[in-house]
C-alpha cells in the first residue's frame, strides 16, 4: 500500500457526537449513543441518520484507512469507515455484529440503502482496518484483520464530481455500552487497481 499520512483526531468533525470520547493522542475511544445508526428506507421502512462519523475531506485519487478494535458482543454493534456526500448519498463500510456473527460488509446509499455482508467470525479480537479508495466514478472498499491479506469488500458507484468526506464511524443501534477504540486514521493515494 502507498505511504500514508496520519490524520489527527482533532481534524475531523462529527456528524453526531458520541456519548463519550477519550483520547491519549494515539487512540480514540468513542462510546455510541443507544439507538445510533445509519439507514434509509429499504426493506425496513425507516430512516436512521444518527451515526457517529468523524469526517474529513476525501478527494478523488485519495484513500483513507481506519483501524479499530471493539468487543463485538451487542446486537448490531458496528464500526468502520463512513463516506458522505450528503444525507441521502453515503457509504458505511466495516464490521457489524448481528445474530451471533461478526459480518464484514458495506451499506451503499443513493437515496435508498442496500447492504452486502459476509461472516468474519475469526476476526474477533483482531485489530480491523477498513480502507476506502475514491476513484472518479467509484469507491473501492478493502479490509483486513491485523496484518492479514487485504480483502476486497465492495466496488460501489460514487459521484466523482461531488464534495465528499470520510472517516471513522460507529453506531450502537440496540445498546448504550458500545466502546470502539480507533487506533489509526490515515490518508494516502487511492489504490489504482482492483486485482
TrEMBL record:
The lineage of its organism: Bacteria, Bacillati, Actinomycetota, Actinomycetes, Micrococcales. It comes from the Bacteria. This is Regulation of enolase protein 1 (Concanavalin A-like superfamily). Pfam families: DUF1349. InterPro entries: ConA-like_dom_sf (IPR013320), DUF1349 (IPR009784). Coiled coil: none annotated.
